[in-house]
Design goal:
The protein has 296 residues and is of the alpha+beta class. It has eight helices and twelve strands.
Length: 296
Amino acid sequence: MPLTPSAPTSRGALPGQLRVLTGADAPALLRLCDRDPVGNLFVSARLLGLVARPGTDLGGQVWGWFEDGVLVSACWAGANLVPVEATPAALDAFAAHAREQGRRCSSLVGPAEAVLGLWERLRPHWRGVREVRARQPLMVCDTEPSVEPDPAVRRSTLRELDLVVPACVAMFTEEIGYAPAPPDGGGAYRARVAELVSTGRSFVRVDPGPSGPEVVFKAELGAVAPKTVQVQGVWVPPHRRGEGLAAPGMAAVVRAARADGVEQVSLYVNDYNTRALAAYRRVGFREVGTYATVLF
């Protein structure tokens, strides 16, 4: 059963029990996420969005692991599997439950120790893994940016959707290895981008190009909580790389988020992307942990 505000409370959990969480478990789950607000932001942001928009489809379940009736670990189960504060016993339970259901996700992602532990348990049973990104620095900027923000970077508008969607598709394809949808973005993907734009979570710089206006920098606030956000989808088109657009662009995103009251702007990045790491460090981002991603 998906986590919904109207869902009834399950009977009291027994020691060492896994069950699907309900709306009644939301406060306990938020407290669990708050143990690491940056590392667990994906799940807490989903929960907070549900509180803000009751009845919203979360797009997945949350599995809870209880010991002595207390929620000690959780795992978001949707398009991704995302462990939250997962103990070894919880990872055993999550892996067993995932094996019973069969693979329904496109990736495992989250804090590295838990993700790699979960993958170690699933690897003998799940085939078709495309890539394991075992070390993705999790970074935070909680000060004013150290470089001057690009004044041309701003929030995008719905009038620019036909520019923004192809840029998002290009970034996704380059990062993941396949397109999220047909070249026009597809209905569902376009709707997701439109939601980010309409809620002020999409940032772009648009310059004149040989065939008309083009996005030359973009980033989105993929996960949002009152005091912490996670930047995703940072991208500069290949023909404009090396011009120094990324660091000032990210500085503009950080400044805009902080102007809205955000205290911590976070992101995670592949450890082999040395150019991006250098740009983020120039802005003022520092490492606070490590993520990992397993792609199917």
